[in-house]
Amino acid sequence: MYGSDSATDDSERTAFRKAEKKYKLYYDQNTKSSKKKKQPRPVDLSEVIDFKSIKESLDRRGELPTGISVLQHDFDRPVFCLEKRPGFYFIPGALSTEEQCHWIRESLTNFPQPHNRTNHNAVYGPIHDLFTAAKEKMVLAEGNLQAGSGHEDDSLASDVNAPKWKFCKEHSLPSKRNISKSTPASVLLRKLRWSTLGLQFDWSKRAYNISLAHNKIPDALCRLARKMAAPAMPFGEEFQAEAAIVNYFGPGDMLGGHLDDMEADWSRPIVSMRYHGVPRIFTDEESAEVTPLELQFSHEDDHCILDYIKTSRININIRQVF
């Protein structure tokens, strides 16, 4: 959409919204009993572009549907383009099952860690070790955690600089008079919607704030983004990963169509692993596509990750800011 006129923008935006509404998750309202589990309304997927099937057709017969081409590039797999949407590139199977599992684990355990920010910061401030706390069935409590209260780290009770919110075991919560609020860590994990890596984005001002403390984007993620961005980069130039946003989608969540335009140079691609604009998540056994991940997360310590990913999706989108 970059560089197009306003009339084209309006027409494309309207068409996008119609498509988005078509595929959005709706529930059947004809259920007689309110106690019966709501059933998703069926949706016609015949017009959805299925790059997995397109790649299979290309591999078997060398055929491509009208309007879809393969970018000629020194890359280890096909890079599909939509001829009417210049600037869009799709790499099917870009991540192996092992790579997917690695970045799922990182997204749940390390990427929400301070100094990275999440949607929870506005209410709770920095939260450390959210996934571990959820796994251990802990509770985030706010209040006067006084010495002798049974809190597992009473040394913090007299520290005026200690955070107001702290994880503790539910059975060791201080008395109600000392606790104003408490929330299970598992609930906070399910309500995690985004975390930011590298340069931090100020959502209130819609701009990057380079003065905010931040964790460095892992070198492995930088290398992966550089590799994925290569087909879209000008000849001889390399993509520089400077900021990333991790989106977490739970059942019923969606992220509407929008324009990412806060980066200085729009000629640099945004690298998106898995899907960023999501009108609907399919979690039924036929469509969920999590079976290959189950073997990777079969260890007892990984059951929490598997339970999470069975009904959720994670997207990592990486940007070159300057």
TrEMBL record:
Its cofactor is Fe(2+). Keywords: Dioxygenase, Iron, Metal-binding, Oxidoreductase. It comes from Escallonia rubra. Binds 1 Fe(2+) ion per subunit. InterPro entries: Alkb, AlkB-like, AlkB-like_sf. The keyword Metal-binding applies. This is Alpha-ketoglutarate-dependent dioxygenase AlkB-like domain-containing protein. Fe cation binds at H258, D260. Residues 185-273 form the Alpha-ketoglutarate-dependent dioxygenase AlkB-like domain. Belongs to the alkB family. GO terms for cellular component: cytoplasm. The keyword rRNA-binding does not apply. One of its GO terms (biological process) is oxidative RNA demethylation. One of its GO terms (molecular function) is ferrous iron binding.
